[in-house]
Amino acid sequence: MSERVLVLAGGLSHERDVSLRSGRRVAEALRDRGFEVEVRDVDSTLLASLRDDPPACVLPLLHGATGEDGAIREVLELAGIPYVGSGPAACRVAFDKPVAKTVVAAAGLATPECVVLPHETFRELGAAAVMEAMAERLGLPLIVKPARGGSALGCTVVRSVADLPSAMIDAFAYGDVALVERFVQGEEVAVGVYDDGDGPRALPVVGIVPDGGVYDYTARYTAGSTEFTVPARLSEELTAACADVALRAHEALGLRDLSRTDLIVDAEGTVWFLEVNVAPGMTETSIVPLAVEASDVELGELFGRLVRAAASR
Which residues cross the membrane (predicted)? Predict the structure, then answer.
């Protein structure tokens, strides 16, 4: 079997630059393991190219809308091309944060209470009255984020009711639906999960301590803006609990191959599910590569295993 891999990177979402950086890094890691790798963007010639010269496997590293909402994976399935990652239906569920929270809550995982508001409802019912009701119901602080999207774009921590209007505007700039969630104080961690054919396994838990206190876009992609600890500074018991939550979320959402789950551990030791990512960033400051480095596999080796498992499906 040919081991020619096509890495899809770029796209038209707000996370295009992150995707390009992820694509380059993974491509280099696979080449170091002996794979023939092509990196290309998504355009109108993609489907014809796949049909004319199909690779052994496609590796979608597209972030944000179209990259993580299952659409590209639907096209790959139409073309009959194997790919690394979760299927279209699972992607749609995971990419929609409120839906994902509902699924994991039904599976018995803790997730912060929230309110989900489309922009039209927010406007038609009177923004001031709606915001007052949200603050009364959920309390402060809150975190406001787009219901769909990644890299913390449009996310704002709200500690005063006076700051809520601008936070809602920021969220609506990235989507038509806002998720307003009770902000849980605690240790922020992330857990990668991978399955190369032997069942899902958790990577080492990564602790996240951003300089500004909030893990926003700048803290995620500016070198030195965030302190990462691998493994996280948690007790053995809490570390195991975080890994367990990530594995249960991965399975409850029907995910495949690779995911990253974002969590908060509060002062009482409760592990709260925040969201899951089906196409985790692979840049120099991204969490999953840090976890891989601390594990017993290398990045190229891990993706090589995932590629071969996907190609054999």
Answer: none
Residue 245 carries which side chain, given as an amino acid letter? Answer: V
Q: Which residues are catalytic?
A: 15, 151, 221, 260, 262, 275, 277, 281
**How many other C-beta atoms are found inside a 10 Å radius of the C-beta of residue 127?**
15
DSSP string for 62-111: --STTTSSSHHHHHHHHTT--BSS--HHHHHHHHBHHHHHHHHHHTT-B-
Q: Which residues pair with 83 in a beta bridge?
A: 58
Q: Whole-angstrom distance between the N-terminal and C-terminal Cα of the chain?
A: 13
This prediction has a pTM of 0.91
Summarised one tens digit per residue, pLDDT across range 181-199 is 999 999 999 999 999 998 9
**Pairing verdict, β 4-8 and 57-60:** parallel
Please tell me whether residue 256 adopts helix, strand or coil conformation.
coil
Dump pLDDT digits (tens) for 247-305.
999 999 999 999 999 999 999 999 999 999 999 999 988 999 999 999 988 999 999 99
Q: How many residues does the chain have?
A: 313
